[in-house]
Amino acid sequence: MALDWHTILCIQSKKRAMKSKIYFLILFLSMTFIIQSCSGVIKMDKIPELQGGSPLSGIKTVIFTVNHFKDDRGSVKEFAGDERTVGMSGGVQPNYRTDRQVNDIVRQAIINELIRNGHRVVATEDSSKANVIIDGTVRQYWAWFEHHHYWPLSYEHTVLGSVKADITVKFSDSGSTFSKSFNGAADLKTYAGFTKGKCESVLNEALLNMVKDFTMDLGFLDGLNKTEKGKLNN
Fold first, then answer.
1. Which of 53, 105, 154, 226 has the greatest count of CB atoms below 10 A from its CB?
2. Which of 142, 162, 141, 145 is closest to 34 using CA atoms?
3. Are 169 and 134 in contact (CB under 8 A)?
4. What structural domains does the chain harbor?
5. pLDDT tens digits along 1-48
């Protein structure tokens, strides 16, 4: 029996409503999965280290003290409510935090690079023995992601990381001081959303880029070359 036009319209309307419900169900489940997967603690048992050569290795052994850095990342840290928060979903919602303070992570990464290149680092209480004293303030230590394309079953994101620190170096032999801001950045394309692994990866790369920016700075190296024990190896 042929259906009248009113019945046909009702059937079509119900089909459209069903498709719409399915669409929003897929959207809801997808977003729920992403949100649930985007949380947790990043363990920093081992601070990443640079690989390969560095001009630091061409300078005779210098004794350093690296004082405890400050964490002054501003309003985002205050919003997050936890000084260890480092991963921000869309720059707004806190998702990840480290199991160590970020100022300690940055400080230790610098210490590792100095030791890796043959220099000595003494404790802060022994700073009188040091040729060079380093102080610093962390201004950025964040990872976040940006949407580039969205579809219920397909996600294209870029996970970005940024580490920035203001560092002051005092050369005890000459009494001179060197101060500058150093930056490290990283990015990673992904279809997997803002996962903990991606967050950790871009932060580690950004951290190492910041350490490289500092330890390969010509002003810093020039100051080391002028210290009593830092004359260039021949």
1. 105
2. 145
3. yes
4. 38-225 (3.40.50.10610)
5. 555 555 555 655 666 666 555 555 555 444 544 544 445 788 888 899
